[in-house]
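Students often ask why we bother encoding 3D structure as a string. The short answer is that it lets us treat folding as translation between two languages. Here is a chain of 203 residues written in the first language.
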Amino acid sequence: MGKWFKILAFIIIIIFALLICNFFIKSNYKTKENGNNKSKQEIEQYILNVTSYKAKIKVTVCSNKNTNYYEFEQEVRSQSYTKQLALSPESLAGMEIIYENGIITVQNTKYNLSQIYENYPYISSNSLYLTSFIDGYRNSTSKEITEVDGKIQMSYTPKLNKYINKQILYINKSSLEPQNLQVFDINNELRVDIIYNEIELNI
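And here it is in the second language, the structure alphabet:
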């Protein structure tokens, strides 16, 4: 009788331990799903504090006549250093643009070609960079943050730009990572669509 009682007690302890583990796993999962329960304003501040990142992106550029597709690796360490490497199309693959302290180096790693330009303006003002969006959003007087279908949308309208009417950054509320950046023209037509396949913030 004593032996069976010990076995039964052991089984009950195991079941109880499993129930506790299951509770904590579900609680942790729920917290992640809710983006650690951060508010829109907290997520906005988190994105505005991004000063560096690495990413692999897919870019779609739409003009009135055609649509072009590109893939890049990007690295932004600060306002004084950025790097962008073209992965596709094949005609651009290996083309690398590095900006560092006012000097821009354009090189092709496939053909071992390089060209240096000095006294260049800050290259990350290019709309392909996430940090460009962040700077524009931070300084804009016409900006908005909303939540749609579980995604946070940060949008703003650049000043004095007849080609760009609006930019929208879509953020995964769970992971707090940017997923998509879209640029619209004055006719509200999508001109640039950037998808972040991989991204690491504040490197």
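Translate back mentally: The chain has three helices and eleven strands. Keep this in mind for the problem set.
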